[in-house]
């Protein structure tokens, strides 16, 4: 039996690697889009149940969410009844339409499972007091499963929550933007476009004004901000004044105050376009991901383990120079300490494959390779060891929380 809990973590994940590879390929070869991950949900929950976790299927009234948990009281009877430290990991498993696992969520799934397995085995063998919780969070690519799971208590009681993401680089301080999604309806009045156009109120005119004004806003907003829109219904027929026009608008920013400001500016534009054309407008905010709040205490501990395993990283300033993408893990890191580093799926040495980028058919293909699996296993080990330190090292966990509680910009 291993006498070192860290070595137990590494040995456990290494031993489980063939099973995790099989689990990954099952999900990879059976891609499902957000909130339709029925096969992945069953595959993962069956696996976790078989490995001794207490599993809640369809958690938080979300059909494809789950929570898998294991708790150990520890060997010190004097500690019974005192607060217990808890670590959480996230597994994502949804795919992209048409592309499949072009973001490699099959690898995120097994990295989280492996990390939870490692901590559980260490707790059992070494009688470590604590709790490990794996959260199966669906629909990251669409409306986000973490936000409703947060709101419904799935993350309560965790001292920290961790996850890793595949990519074309090894990145510690990934800086996704916060993002919001608005679904917009302009309502006008239909009329015959030839016989009596003056009787109509043109909803497409309102949308055209709004679309152009948003385009002009881009020049006056921060270079790191993003706005992108589509018109999903531009009218019913060319000879009918459009009475209903719909659109989707997404907006992104690196910092939360900028995200709020951008949202308010877009709402002002939509209201002004409605007033100018005589239309009414209905706006629904259907999702909002917060900017990621990386905890440096957790991230640097993860770095130390990854570098022990041979990984190499850039400086933090370089990582944060080019913010990109968005994730609902941002909401988690605003609620509690956490991190979201990226591991290169093309090379254990960190060499980038030319032309490889997420959300592509090529990335989906690479997410099924043996080298991608090995990079995920390495990241899983480092994440598991970091999580174990949260349970074992009270001073480390105190410093993690101290950083999180500092006032944020």
UniProtKB/TrEMBL annotation:
Q: Specify the protein name.
A: Peptidase M20 domain-containing protein 2
- Source domain of life is Eukaryota
Q: NCBIfam families of this UniProt entry?
A: amidohydrolases
Q: What GO annotations for molecular function exist for this entry?
A: dipeptidase activity
Cited SUPFAM superfamilies: Bacterial exopeptidase dimerisation domain, Zn-dependent exopeptidases
Q: Which family is this sequence assigned to? A: Belongs to the peptidase M20A family.
Report the PANTHER family cross-referenced here: PEPTIDASE M20 (PTHR30575), XAA-ARG DIPEPTIDASE (PTHR30575:SF0)
Residues annotated as domain Peptidase M20 dimerisation: 178-275
**Which Pfam family is one of this chain's hits?**
Peptidase_M20
């Amino acid at each position: 039996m291993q006498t070192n809990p860290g070595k137990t973590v590494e040995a456990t994940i290494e031993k489980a690697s063939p099973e995790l590879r099989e689990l990954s390929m099952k999900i990879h070869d059976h891609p499902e889009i957000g909130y339709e991950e029925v096969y992945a949900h069953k595959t993962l929950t069956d696996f976790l149940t078989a490995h001794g976790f207490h599993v809640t299927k369809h958690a938080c009234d979300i059909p494809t969410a789950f929570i898998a948990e294991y708790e150990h009281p520890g060997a010190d009877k004097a500690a019974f009844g005192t607060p217990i430290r808890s670590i959480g990991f996230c597994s994502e498993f949804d795919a992209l339409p048409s592309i499949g696992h072009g973001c490699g969520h099959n690898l995120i799934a097994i990295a989280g499972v492996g990390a939870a397995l490692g901590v559980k085995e260490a707790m059992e063998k070494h009688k470590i007091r604590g709790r490990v919780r794996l959260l199966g969070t669906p629909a990251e690519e669409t409306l986000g499963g973490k936000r409703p799971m947060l709101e419904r208590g799935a993350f309560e009681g965790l001292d920290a929550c961790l996850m890793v993401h595949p990519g074309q680089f090894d990145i510690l301080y990934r800086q996704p933007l916060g993002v919001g999604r608005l679904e917009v309806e302009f309502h006008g009045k239909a009329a015959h476009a030839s016989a009596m156009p003056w009787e109509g109120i043109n909803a497409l005119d309102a949308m055209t004004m709004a679309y152009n004004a948003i385009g002009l806003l881009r020049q006056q907003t921060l270079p790191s901000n993003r706005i992108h829109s589509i018109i999903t219904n531009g009218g019913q027929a060319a000879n009918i004044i459009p009475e209903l026009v719909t659109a989707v608008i997404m907006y992104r920013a690196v910092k939360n105050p900028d995200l709020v400001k951008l949202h308010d500016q877009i709402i002002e534009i939509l209201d002004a376009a409605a007033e100018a054309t005589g239309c009414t407008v209905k706006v629904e905010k259907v999702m909002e991901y917060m900017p990621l709040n990386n905890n440096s205490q957790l991230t640097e501990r993860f770095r130390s383990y990854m570098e022990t395993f041979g990984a190499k990283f850039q400086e933090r300033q370089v990582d944060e120079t080019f913010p990109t993408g968005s994730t609902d893990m941002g909401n988690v890191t605003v609620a509690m300490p956490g991190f979201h580093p990226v591991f290169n799926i093309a090379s254990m040495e960190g060499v980038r494959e030319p032309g490889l980028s997420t959300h592509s058919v090529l990335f989906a293909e690479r997410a099924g390779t043996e080298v991608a699996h090995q990079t995920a296993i390495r990241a899983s080990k480092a994440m598991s060891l970091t999580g174990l330190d949260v349970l074992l090292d009270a001073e480390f966990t105190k410093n993690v929380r101290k950083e999180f509680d500092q006032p944020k910009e």
